[in-house]
Amino acid sequence: MTSLEHIKQEIASGIAAVLGGDIPVSQADLARPPQDDMGDLSFGCFAAAKAFKKSPVEIAKTIAAGFPQRDFVASAEAAGPYVNFRLDRKGLATIILRESLAMGEKYGESHKKRERIMIEYAQPNTHKEIHVGHLRNFVLGLSMVNLTRAAGYDVVPVSYMGDIGAHVAKCLWCLKKYHVGEPTPENKGKYLGQIYAEATRRVDEDESLKDEVAEVQRQLEAREPEWDLLWKETRQWSLDEFADIFLRLGVELERMYFESEVEEPGKQLVKELVAKGIAETGERGAIIVNLEKYGLGIFLVLKSDGNSLYSTKELALAGLKFMEFPGITRSLHIVDIRQSLYFKQLFKTLELMGFDKKMVHLAYEFVTLKEGAMSSRKGNIVAYEDFRDEVMARAAAETRKRREDWDEARVSEAAWIIADGAMKFGMLKIDPDRPIVFDIESSLAFEGFTGPYVQYAHARLSSILKKAAAAGMNDERVEGSEDEKEYRLLYAVAEFPAAAAAAAEACKPSILAQFLFDFAQQSNDFYRDVPVMSAAVEDQGRRRAIVRSARTVLANGLELLGIKAPAEM
Fold it and tell me: What predicted TM-score, i.e. pTM, was given to this entire model?
């Protein structure tokens, strides 16, 4: 529990004591007043007034008059239907400084919990090109891993990749039928994506080709040597590309699951479901689980020709995950919103099988173009590689303008940090359940609600500390004062751990992104309005400590979002 949380708890208990303990009061009932001059925390008396059948104004006066002495609470004042609490600014500021600076990189983390959680994300299909829609999955998953760990949970990050199935059969069919002997380009992942898009167009134009693709899939599932060798070779092309992208983005996985390893166990499991009466043969010969009485329709678990489906394999995957990682209490699946019904059907079928582990689907909306939704089937995607290179080029151009004295190596390094921050923040600032319309210009801007804006606030604070160190001014006074601007920035520092915890609890990194933007604005105001290097001697050490504390919040917050905090920009 942070110092601010402790104070809120003390105020809540004091209010409850005045009310006689009949009305439950918690930290959540305390909020910041709309204006700073009203105090630091405010309690609305409406619920209490209703319970006691008195006016809120009367209840507020009662609480203010009878509020007991509490640490760091300077006064309690009635203001209409509210009670406004003013805190001991100097005392609280001192505690916040000590707490944030002592914890350093760990500031914002919660106490360790016993619960172990698996988070599944970063699930691109092999033999397809990675596009900016995948990027939302990657950065949302990475931030959720970081936030959940910071909230104290033991997190196991994994991925589940589609390396077999109809899309692979379609790609390899086209590759072998129309591109034999063709020189393979350096970017093999992009090449496979183009082949897949071509295959889709050909099959759409001539439905008779579907039988050829189905036969290829059958031979792939039978591990026919000729097709199996081609599959292994091209699969590795995709995996090499994934590894490079994951490394650049900071995606780390403890285990990578593949559809190919659970295909046969999945088929065997479907047989068992039929034997137990959970599954049955449908009208067209496919194996189904009838979930209509649960309002979930028909769940297809095996094709009529015996070929597997996503569901075939994922039924087996669930048991494998919890067997390999004992102690997991729940598994969080970060998959796009189109799969919402599928996951409801999957989870219900697992429940009918007696599988009692908690499974959760964190759905996110699409990333769209002005022309419409992206699809690797149709080939009208914005490839991640092209997207990244465009953002990098613009970031490099901006960096050259700002830093004419930097060589190209330094420009390139800084440009990637800025581009990475722009891409990730641009995705994470939007709630997962809201669609994103991709816009390079807005995401890369150094002003406004963007990653570079928050990164730049960190760089500006770093510059103060760098100048101080160069001047031999290294001493810091970890002691608060009554100064309004100093106190307001430190109060915001104290609110950071709660913002990080709220983002983890709600599965919305956007909560933290919004906090960091607001905090960056406040930090920039402090940078502009409060002298540090030129301050009076008695103020310099304290203000340097405040700058370090604020920089810690920006660095730690960006790190939780998977974004680097540069010292220079």
Answer: 0.92
